[in-house]
Write a structure and sequence with these properties.
Layout lengths: L1 H13 L2 E6 L9 H8 L2 H4 L2 E6 L7 H7 L5 E4 L3 H7 L3 E6 L6 E5 L13 E3 L5 H10 L8 E3 L5 H6 L5 E5 L2 H8 L5 E3 L12 E5 H6 L1 H20 L1 H12 L5 H15 L11 H14 L6 H8 L13 H13 L1 H37 L3 E6 L4 E5 L1 H7 L18 H18 L6 E7 L5 E10 L4 E8 L1 H52 L3 H31 L8 E3 L1 H18 L3 E7 L3 E5 L1 H17 L6 E9 L4 E8 L21 H7 L5 H11 L5 E5 L3 E9 L1 E5 L18 E5 L3 H13 L4 E5 L2 H10 L4 E4 L8 H10 L6 E5 L6 H6 L4 E4 L4 H11 L4
Parallel strand pairs: 1-2, 1-3, 6-7, 6-8, 17-19, 24-25, 24-26, 26-27, 27-28
Antiparallel strand pairs: 3-10, 4-10, 5-8, 5-9, 11-12, 11-15, 13-14, 14-15, 16-18, 18-23, 19-20, 20-22, 21-22
Helix pairs in contact: 2-10, 11-12, 13-14, 19-20, 19-25, 20-24, 21-22, 22-24, 26-27
């Protein structure tokens, strides 16, 4: 790309294109950029031979450039947007002046446009329409003032107060007034949100389309000329005065140059910058004025010249032929020229960029809303400070803002501490670079603010203090800390409530389910057994609800941890079949579970996966009527290393609008679902969150009265290949034990239940302790083979009692039998006890523990 661009530059040295531009004024500093571009050779550098055409009263610039194509470019003084809205094929190439030089010069007592009503005001004929629009924009009419068009002795008339105001330009008219020390006021139309346009560089749409490269080169050379003219005002003023016009003095031209620089605004916008947003507003206003409908976005896009494609070579093909012929004749000269040009171009480019960057940095230093203070580290004096610093701290003098003076610190103690921290940083790092501190400072009016103070190296002996206002941030942080503390307290209350609720429900439920099971095995009457089954199922349903609430709470508080272990998926998932066969059969539902490609051990959390699959199958059976099917497909893809699961039912289905909320907490298809089918409405929420934690996404498809499909996939790395099916561990067959057992339990019903179950297993030597203190007394006088220890008891809880027993040197196995079943409870008990059985007590778990600790009994 760079080679192609360079070739174009070489070509342009030998094939200059003729270009013309018509101005909207006679030769003065308002066209200085174009004169500089021509006289300093910038146009020639871009391959252009430019003819400058001054303005004359008979000129119609838009007509000559756009319609008749007499000239290639034009500079317009009025609103080009109007011509575009009216249909002229105009391309705006660059916007040189960001404001117009047109102002209203008034006597000193007139400070507002409204005060012009009834006054005598001189308006040049070419600006009558402009001032009329300005008045109309401010709810005034031209008839509200006495318009004077005679410009004879105009200066004397203003001086002697025979006219109250005159419309003119900020350079010509102001020069005479200031030179003669005549006092005046200026009313600038831009202060009244009214834009008057000047200095718009434009061309025809035809030229922009046929030769965009030429237009682009002309634009770049012109902008370069303007930068040069503003940086070398006196040189260009001499040039204009000596070569282009003689009816103005050099002082007047130089005055004009300085005034025009202020309205070009090159330190705010690059010269030539076109503000598209402002154009959209202008087009909209002008279209409304003309009562026309336009597409604002499209018309702005069509209006503004924009060209970036340097490889559009259709019009430039002839140059390559000339260049090739010239190359054959002058190979050595060309290569030397290329090398020299590269060196010069690089030097010029980097010099220009360095200058631009320096200008940018200076502008940022002064204008950016951050306090900048440059300090000499040899004598700790301030050498430079930005405007914002004085404004922020409300001081007038830069030296008052020295951070090594105590006036801007809270007090002497605060100042001494600040100096200490600075010195500590210097001692540690041998430099202040990287010093960073949040600190309280006070402004001149004693207002205290939090700031962040940082230090950067500025030069060999200077550092830059960068001070940022963080007062709002610190207040927000303080408020956030309060809210976090409140939230933590609320979470703690919630966790304590759930723990107590779980314990208080599990404790009586342990006795209820235990005794129901015992009575069921003894009962002979079928009717009574039926009632006992209902009680048992209801109790288990209640336990499921508790577990759902606890699972949801653990997920919400982030306390559920996903395990990453290796397991045999076929072996783990086959258990699910046995869990739901009976339930499906009781409803006359066909349950089909298909497992495919489960040939590898995989790494994931088998417990949570089974929990989700079980929940989905349980829901499918619950919402499917008799005679229908429920299908579960489990498949592993060894290539993507993902486990795929889908559960399909022929149940009641879900309405489309309910699908968006089906995974939200406590949400079900409708309120009647809970009444008819039961449940907490948390099952799918828990499943969704568990699948998220496993790295997948749970999705659903459903149609009312036709059924639903829940499916997910999760990443699961494969490990070793499954060689043979592993047999499930056989449950303990021991049903008859011997030994001395101590039951520590304050609940009478649970005492009785545990005692009955142990006796059914052959244990007759059973001692009861009603709390921890009583348990300690009993182990002092008797040696037990195993201790079953509750936790929540009066006088002394289970953990404290266990610690006391261990401190006494008694190593009898202690098994926690407790309703505390939240996350972390099991681990807490196992720190001081040997094993853990949650309530309601599962008889198989009890047998397993007895087998473990009563070996040989």
């Amino acid at each position: 790309m760079k080679i192609v661009v360079f070739i174009f530059l070489i070509v342009n040295l030998f094939a200059l294109e003729k270009v013309s531009i018509q101005f909207n004024t006679k030769y003065n500093f308002a066209v200085a950029g174009y004169i500089a571009a021509k006289e300093k050779g910038f146009y020639k550098d871009y391959g252009l031979d430019v003819k400058l055409v001054p303005y004359n009263n008979k000129s119609d610039i838009v007509h000559d450039v756009v319609r008749k194509h007499i000239y290639d470019f034009g500079v317009f003084n009025e609103n080009l947007v109007v011509h575009k809205v009216k249909g002229d094929d105009i391309k705006l190439v660059a916007s040189i002046f960001k404001r117009s030089a047109v102002v209203i010069i008034t006597q000193t007592e007139i400070t507002d446009i409204k005060q012009l009503e009834g006054k005598k005001i001189y308006v040049p004929k070419n600006l009558i329409d402009t001032i009329d629009e300005l008045f109309e924009y401010n709810d005034m009419e031209l008839d509200d003032v006495e318009v004077i068009s005679d410009d004879a002795d105009l200066f004397e008339k203003f001086k002697n107060h025979k006219i109250d105001a005159k419309v003119g330009y900020i350079y010509d008219d102001l020069y005479l007034l200031e030179k003669n020390h005549i006092k005046f006021n200026i009313i600038n139309p831009t202060d009244y949100d009214y834009l008057i346009y000047q200095g718009e560089l434009f061309t025809s749409g035809k030229l922009a389309k046929d030769n965009p490269i030429l237009v682009d080169r002309f634009k770049k050379a012109t902008i370069k000329g303007w930068y040069y003219a503003l940086d070398h005002k006196e040189e260009i003023v001499d040039l204009i005065y000596s070569k282009y016009r003689l009816d103005k003095s050099k002082d007047e031209l130089l005055f004009e140059a300085k005034k025009l620089e202020s309205i070009i605004g090159r330190y705010i916008y690059p010269i030539g910058y076109i503000n598209n947003d402002s154009l959209k507003v202008q087009f909209k206003q002008e279209a409304e004025e003309l009562n026309k409908t336009i597409d604002v976005e499209q018309i702005v896009k069509d209006y503004v010249f924009n060209f970036n494609n340097l490889l559009d070579l259709d019009k430039e093909f002839i140059y390559f032929i000339k260049l090739y012929n010239y190359y054959l004749e002058h190979k050595l000269l060309i290569w030397l020229s290329i090398l020299f040009s590269i060196i010069i171009s690089l030097f010029a480019y980097f010099t220009y960029r360095l200058k631009k960057e320096k200008q940018k940095i200076e502008t940022l230093f002064d204008k950016v809303p951050v306090v900048y203070i440059v300090m000499n580290m040899k004598n700790y004096t301030v050498t430079k400070i930005n405007e914002y610093a004085l404004k922020f701290f409300k001081y007038q003098k830069a030296e008052e803002l020295n951070l090594f003076k105590s006036n801007i610190h809270l007090d002497n103690e605060s100042f001494d501490l600040f100096v200490k921290k600075v010195n500590e940083h210097l001692d540690t790092y041998k430099t202040l670079e990287g010093f960073n501190l949040n600190w309280k400072l006070k402004k001149r009016d004693k207002e205290v603010v939090w700031v962040n103070i940082r230090v950067l190296n500025y030069s060999d002996n200077e550092i830059l203090w960068v001070i940022t206002d963080i007062d709002d941030l610190m207040r927000a942080q303080k408020e956030l800390n309060k809210q976090i503390l409140t939230t933590k307290k609320a979470m703690k209350v919630k966790e304590e409530f759930l723990a107590n609720m779980s314990h208080e429900i599990r404790t009586p439920l342990n006795a209820i389910l235990g005794f129901v099971d015992i009575i069921y095995n003894r009962e002979k009457d079928k009717e009574n057994k039926k009632y006992l089954e209902i009680i048992n199922k209801s109790g288990k349903n209640l336990l499921t609800i508790i577990n759902d609430i606890l699972d949801f709470s653990k997920i919400e508080s982030g306390k559920i941890k996903i395990e990453k272990i290796e397991f045999n998926p076929r072996e783990e998932f086959e258990i699910i079949v046995s869990l739901f066969e009976a339930k499906a059969s009781s409803k006359n539902i066909t349950l089909q579970i298909s497992m495919q490609n489960l040939d590898y051990n995989i790494i994931s959390d088998p417990v949570r996966i089974k929990q989700v699959i079980s929940n989905l199958i349980s829901n499918a059976i619950k919402f499917t009527s008799s005679g229908k099917k429920v299908i579960c497909n489990i498949n592993y893809n060894k290539n993507t290393e993902k486990l795929y699961v889908e559960v399909i039912d022929e149940g009641i289905g879900i309405e489309e609008e309910k699908l968006k909320t089906i995974f939200q907490p406590f949400a079900q298809a409708d309120t009647s679902t809970t009444r008819k089918f039961g449940g907490t409405g948390l099952g799918l929420t828990i499943s969704k969150k568990l699948i998220d934690l496993l790295g997948g996404e749970l999705k659903v498809e459903s149609e009312v009265n036709k059924g639903s499909k829940f499916y997910f996939s999760i990443p699961a790395k494969k490990t070793s290949k499954i060689l043979e099916k592993q047999e499930l561990k056989a449950k303990s067959t021991i049903q008859n034990f011997k030994g001395d057992v101590l039951i520590v339990e304050d609940n009478k019903a649970n005492q009785m239940f545990l005692k009955v179950v142990l006796k059914s297993l052959g244990i007759d030597n059973i001692t009861i302790a009603n709390d921890g203190e009583e348990a300690i007394d009993k182990v002092k006088t008797h040696q037990f083979d195993i201790i079953f220890m509750d936790e929540n008891m009066p006088k002394m809880n289970g953990i404290e009692a266990s610690k006391k027993i261990r401190e006494m040197g008694i190593m009898t196995p202690i098994v926690a039998v407790t309703a505390n079943a939240l996350t972390g409870d099991k681990e807490r008990f196992l720190e001081v006890m040997d094993d853990y059985i949650p309530k309601p007590v599962d008889k198989e778990k009890l047998i397993e523990v007895l087998s473990k600790y009563l070996k040989g009994k």
